[in-house]
Amino acid sequence: MQQESTMRVFYRRNTDTIRLLFITIVIFITMSSLSSRFLRPNNFLSMGFQIPELGLYSIAMMLVMITGGRDLSIVGIGNLSCIVAALIMRDGYAAGLAGGAMIMNILLGVMAALLVGVVCGLFNGIIVAFTGLPSMLVTMATSYIFTGIGVVLTNGEAISKVYPEYVYFGNNSALGLPIPLWFLIAALLITWLLLNKTRYGFEIKMVGSNPLASRFSGINIHSVLIKTYLISGIFCAVCGLEILARTDSAKANYALTYTFQAILCAVLGATDPNGGYGKVSTLVLSLISMQLLSSGFNMLRLGTYFKEFAWGVLLLVVLSANFLNNEISRRRYVAKMNKRAAQEDGS
Amino acid sequence: MSVKLKSFVKTSQFALLVLFAGTWIVFGLINPSIFSVASFFSLTRACIVPALFSLALMLIMVLGSFDFSFTMVGAFASYCSIFIITELGLPQTPLIVLLLISIAIAVLLEIVNWFLIDKFKLQPFITTLGTHSMLKGMILAFVSTSFIYTLPDSLRKLSTNYLTTAKFADGTEAVLHIGILAVAIMYALVHVLLQHTSFGRKVYAIGANEEAARRVGINVSKVRFFTFCLAGVIVGIGGIIHDSLARCTVPLPPDLIGQELTFVAAVILGCGANLQARGSVVGTFIAVFFLRFVSTNLIMLGIPSYWQRMVTGCILLVSLLAQVRGKRAPQAGKE
Amino acid sequence: MYKSFFGVIAMDGMDFDVRKGEIHCLVGENGCGKSTMIKVISGFYTYDRGDLFINGKKYRKITSAESMREGIQVIYQDFSLFPNMTIAENIMMYDTTSSGRVMVNHQKQVDSAQQVLNRINFDINPNLYVYQLNIAEMQMVAICRAIAQEARLIIMDEPTSALTSSEVNKLLQVVKDLKNQGVAVLFVSHKLDEILEISDRITVMRNGKSVFVSKDGEALPSKEELIFHMTGKSFSDKRNAWNINTNQTPLLETRGLGLQGAFEDINLKLYPSEILGITGLLGCGRQELAEALFGVIQAQSGSLLIYGKEMNPFSSVQEAVAQNIAYVPEDRLTKGLHMNQSVADNAIARIVDQFRNRLGLISGKKTEEGKHKALHTVHIRGMRPYNPVKSLSGGNQQKVGLIKWLASKPRILILNCPTVGVDVGAKEDIHNIVRELAKEGMGVIVISDDIPEVLNLCSRVLVMKNGRIAHEVFTDDMDIESLEAMLADDDLKEVV
Questions:
Q1: Is the CB of B309 less than 8 angstroms away from the CB of A256?
Q2: Among C317, C362, C384, beta carbon nearest to A216
Q3: Rounded Cα–Cα distance for residues C304 and C320 (Å)
Q4: What angle (nearest 5°) sits at the alpha carbon of residue A195, between those of residues A189 and A200?
Q5: What is the C-alpha to C-alpha distance for residues B268 and A141, in angstroms, rounded to an integer?
Q6: Which of B5, B189, B192, B201 to mutate to probe the C interface, most C CBs <10 Å?
Q7: A331 vs chain C: nearest CA distance in angstroms?
Q8: Cα–Cα distance between C264 and C252 in angstroms, integer?
Q9: What are the sequence ranges of the domains in chain A?
Q10: Which of B39, B283, C92, C298 is least surrounded, with the fewest CB atoms within 10 Å of its CB?
Q11: Do C340 and A193 touch (CB under 8 A)?
Q12: What residue ranges do the domains of chain B occupy?
């Protein structure tokens, strides 16, 4: 083994984090110099309320992307569990439940929503694992079905008016941070633990980088895939509950574009779309930079569409930079080899 | 000829056609007005735009690539061209000029996609997701956010141009819009192109096995370039026809942007037994009509329209599962 | 009189030529540079030194398009066909791509394809899709495609490896027909019987050099001579005496193991500290047997005895792993390693579970220690543990594959072609590692068609043929020539 200075090793192992940190800081400085209101605490507080939805969906997407797949049904699962919880809690609230009965009712709603996440995730996972169909197509079909069930359950209308006590969680802060943000932080921590501290986390990367070799290493690919979609489903359900708490309403077609924003966020966060690589630290940075862009453009009264533009450009620039970077180092390597061959020739 | 007919009977496109016919008959028996010519005409009108956009997507999927931005490209091109004409105050601009401007813009945008996918070897889906987002922001941020209700004269004339009309039983009139001619021509052209020209065969070859295509001496990059351009031409025309049918133009038409998956669904449903590079022009055409038929006629059967999404999803899932046929891919879960 | 394809190719000083209308065979052991040479001729690789002449024209650098224009066609092992198109379309593919015509006339295409099919007497409906065909038919289509291109030289890379004997006979007949039609065929193979049956001339390659070229008009060399040239005498003639105590319980024993179409009635015993060789030609069932012993595919009949305990054939890899069996597959790239993951992560892929702390979570410190320990079991020069495996050379990659399994401390180790595509130095290293392991009591099965390797490493060798164990050989009184002869002694005719 060759010895390298610890600094260099650290840099090489965290290049993507450092690069993204740099981008985030640049965006932060630009935005704060463009708008004086950007640095106000209120702005950060409102960002804290906005970020968890995309964050939770992005985690769900990232996990599936590490296996080399895409999950286009995340928003479908999220909205469906949101609707189920809302239906239960709305009826309870309308019936005037209070005290212990209310808590039981809320718990029932939460459990039902999580169950929806589990069932939908399992459904996706089993089909993808056992049929070998491209996950993108499978989840596209199931997203229609999940959203469709949601539409049927609600007759296509919004469900609203649940317990104010429940809605409190979505709109207030605890320990100086918005409560939804705590949920996101918890989810990120869990994901970090899953990816770095469990056998599953190790196996998911292995399966993503080479399913066949994983099989030859004695990894149960089917189980890893099913687990992944299951966990992704649960995160979506949590996101659905968060949406209900924040908006006090559930709608089958709420924010369908989150699917693609989540892919954007995951890829920007250095998740390899071909599978095998994903990191929580870069995902957090990519979330923050996307949110900074979006809040910043809001501050500048430039409308939400500027952020879409900036997100797209950012994604394309990062992808192209990755390509060019690899290409340059490859060419350098080839040149080095040629030079060495020429020297050997001469001697 | 009988041999050809026999081999067509075996294809999955034929199975789809049978399924379509069966559904038609069942629906028609429940509600006879579905059998009427007028009902057919209104279905046709609803299919014009989806048919064109699905065709563009199918072309790119046959190539083994993917485009998520094609609806945005179409909307962008048509909105910009009409916007330019309106800003210049030239409402008398002939249709052909309008189409050419729109096509030029769309082709240019697809070339950007091609460049990123072909030259930088980026993943098509992710890349076009990026260009989609970028264009969406760009049109609102840098072009305009306003709706344009007074279309150029030629477009307004086009919107009321129809081949023939038919009446429903209750007297409401349905027209066979002239746009269906554009659809027929484009489908015929693309069919001939893919099936009967060497270019088309190259497209299929690349979609099946890019490496093998290189080995037989196909210039993969060049073929890919022209395919993306052609897709640009189709969405450029599709965008203009869309605006003409909608009788106004908006930066982000809600029946295109955000509906990409419906178009993907039609192509998948139409390509049948094998997902890899077997995209079929005929199949796509049938699938577009089938999906649209199911969704518009559920209401006529007394089923609330909100069942539509779920039914579409089930059709899609079943058609996907039908393709598995016991063979297991080792690449489980990969895109 | 005749135009000669004359090439002097320097990979390592390879002199070689093919003449018009002859069947020229290129033979050599695995990894001797045969496929490199094909790629050079077909324009996929460039060469650094020497000259290449085609049709008397000198090429300093040849592109694949130029190579095709000169009438050189390669039939790759994967055939490079397009499954989504019909036979006719595949056969006429070059015509479609290079004729410059805009339209494709399907009827004419079918007719021309039919003519080509007739030329080699291949009776099949040209309107069938290629995905509907079996391997042998696909190969015929690939040959037809080459003929349709007016090929003057067809290079076939190991064309018979996936075929049954009767299909092989048919193929050889086609090759002879081609020769009569004036097409030169370069036939790359290491099945000596086939080669001796059809070739006009033979070139033997070893280590990137041509070591033997048969002369014009002279009789072909005998099989023994060929084997001598293929293997050379450069390796050590060290033999291992079989001194295994047969009274101890075998680590692994199979009783009548069988799988339809792959192997049948396999009875073998593997004792502790033994290195057992299994050899045979491609398609003899050794590959399937290896995978069945590791649970990748399930044997249908017979039973297994592991450490003396009888059990059913494994139905999954997990079952085999639970019995402490390790398997290093023949193809590192697709089956063995995760090329994009780091060396260290590959090394501990089997043993991550061991690094759990009391909470059941994987401890970073223990993992680092584990990586360090695992990577020190086998020395890999110049390796950086956090670089991806793909940055290593073939030999070092193979070592990582070994490390991965050794880390889990298996009692039975199955190595499938452990030194394919590995340079000489690394090969020696790997052999030494295997010997050490056996000394420590591990049972090792080496599956290989590299005869010197098998003789060098093993004390007992099983020769497989047509899915059965045909011979059991003790290596101490065996020489390469006779083992190679045993192997290559194809019972081609008796099957037909």
A1: no
A2: C317
A3: 11
A4: 130
A5: 11
A6: B201
A7: 15
A8: 17
A9: 35-256+271-279
A10: C298
A11: no
A12: 11-319
Task: Please report all neighbours of B, defined by 3+ CB atom pairs within 8 A.
Answer: A, C
CB C407 within 8 A of CB C391: no
Residue of B nearest to A125 (CA): B333
B interface test, pick of C104, C333, C340 with most B CB neighbours within 10 Å: C104
Residues in CB range of A22: below 8 A, 6 or more apart: none
pLDDT tens-place string over residues B128-179: 999 999 999 899 888 888 888 888 888 888 888 777 777 777 777 778 888 8
Task: Give how far the C-alpha of residue C283 lies from the chain's centroid of Cα atoms, to the nearest Å.
Answer: 10
Collapsing DSSP to helix, strand or coil, C327 comes out as: strand
Angle among Cα A256, A264, A134 to the nearest 5 degrees reads: 75
Question: Which residues 277-296 of A are in CB contact (within 8 Å) with C?
Answer: 277
The residue behind tokens 């080792």 is B330
Closest C-alpha among A129, A67, A220 to residue C317: A220
Q: What is the mean pLDDT of residues B222-249?
A: 93
What region, left, alpha or beta, does residue A68 occupy, with left being phi > 0 and alpha being psi -120 to 50 degrees? left
Using the 8-state DSSP alphabet, how is residue C356 labeled? B
Which residues of chain A from 160 to 189 reach within 8 Å of chain C, CB to CB?
none
For residues C308-324, one letter each, b for 16 or more C-beta atoms within 10 angstroms of the residue's C-beta and e for the rest, the string is eeeeebbeebebbbebb
- pLDDT tens across A47-102, in order? 889 899 999 999 999 999 999 999 999 999 999 999 999 999 999 898 888 888 89
Which residues, in sequence order, are CB contacts of A149 under 8 Å at separation 6+?
A: A80, B310
Chain A residues in contact with C381 (beta carbon < 8 A): none
DSSP strands (E only) in chain A: 159-160, 173-174, 177-178, 249-250
CB contact burial B263-301 (16+ within 10 A = b; e otherwise): bbbbbbbbbbebebbbbbbbbbbbbbbbbbbbbbbbeee
The answer to whether the Cβ–Cβ distance between B140 and A68 falls below 8 Å is: no
**Contact assessment for residue C29 and residue C231, using Cβ atoms and an 8 Å cutoff:** yes
Q: B195 exposed, middle or buried (CB, 10 Å; 0-12, 13-18, 19+)?
A: middle
CATH code at B11-319: 1.10.3470
8 Å CB contact between C5 and C18: yes
Q: Which span out of A36-45, B200-209, C22-31, C483-492 was modeled with the highest average pLDDT?
A: B200-209
Quick one: angle between helices A135-154 and A74-94, nearest 10? 20
The ipTM value here is 0.84
Residue B66 CB burial class (10 angstroms; 0-12, 13-18, ≥19): buried
Q: Burial-class residue B23 by CB neighbours within 10 Å (0-12, 13-18, 19+).
A: middle
The answer to whether B33 and B41 have CB atoms below 8 angstroms apart is no
How far apart are the C-alpha atoms of B56 and B75, rounded to whole Å?
Answer: 14
The amino acid that residue C291 corresponds to is E
Please tell me the distance from the alpha carbon of residue C398 to that of residue C427, in angstroms, as a whole number.
Answer: 10
Number of CB pairs, chain A paired with chain C, less than 8 A apart: 80
Cα–Cα dist B314/B318, whole Å:
6
Residue in chain B closest to C65 (alpha carbons) equals: B217
Three-state SS letters, B242-278: HHHHHCCECCCCCCCCCCHHHHHHHHHHHHCCCCCCC
User: What distance in Å separates the CA atoms of residue C279 and residue A76, rounded to the nearest whole number?
Assistant: 55
> pTM of the entire structure?
0.85
Choose among B201, B207, B278: nearest Cβ to C104: B201
| C94 close to C148: Cβ distance less than 8 angstroms | yes
Domains of chain C: 4-231 (3.40.50.300), 252-495 (3.40.50.300)
DSSP state of A343: H
